[in-house]
Design a protein that fits this description.
With 134 residues, this protein is mainly α. The protein is 86% helix and 0% strand. Helix 1 packs antiparallel against helix 3. The radius of gyration is 45 Å and the shape is rod-shaped. This is Protein phosphatase 1 regulatory subunit.
């Protein structure tokens, strides 16, 4: 019609039919592509959701195991601290008793000689050390 042709001419009708068919084919192709993309999006969404759920579950399990192990280690550390303190008390008491009984202060440093007479102070220091460690 732009060149002065008749809209109802057989050529224009044929071209119009072809354009209509192409338009329908294009819409069908677009619809098929939209359906395929929506299907892929649904699968992707489900996969991400499942991965996120698995990640949260694994992290929770790892955290629970970590806390359990940490608690176990701290129990062991407390037991070792108590054992160390008991051994230290026994050794210091035996050392002081032996040195006082024998009056053998030759190899005892001067700073320690002043403390040896006050056993309670030494035992309090050991107890304070145990509390600090705990």
């Amino acid at each position: 019609t732009m060149h002065g042709e008749d809209e109802e001419s057989p050529e224009n009708l044929a071209l119009s039919d072809n354009v209509d068919k192409l338009n329908i084919q294009f819409e069908d192709a677009m619809n098929d592509m939209w359906q395929a993309l929506m299907t892929q999006e649904l699968y992707l969404h489900e996969a991400i959701e499942e991965s996120t759920t698995n990640f949260h579950r694994k992290i929770a399990e790892l955290m629970a195991k970590f806390v359990e192990q940490a608690q176990s280690f701290f129990v062991q550390l407390r037991e070792i601290s108590v054992h160390f303190s008991e051994n230290m008390t026994e050794i210091v008491t035996r050392f002081i008793s032996t040195k006082l009984a024998l009056q053998d202060f030759e190899d005892v440093p001067n700073d320690l000689r002043m403390c040896m007479e006050d056993r309670d102070a030494i035992l309090n220091l050991i107890a304070g050390m145990k509390d600090t460690h705990t």
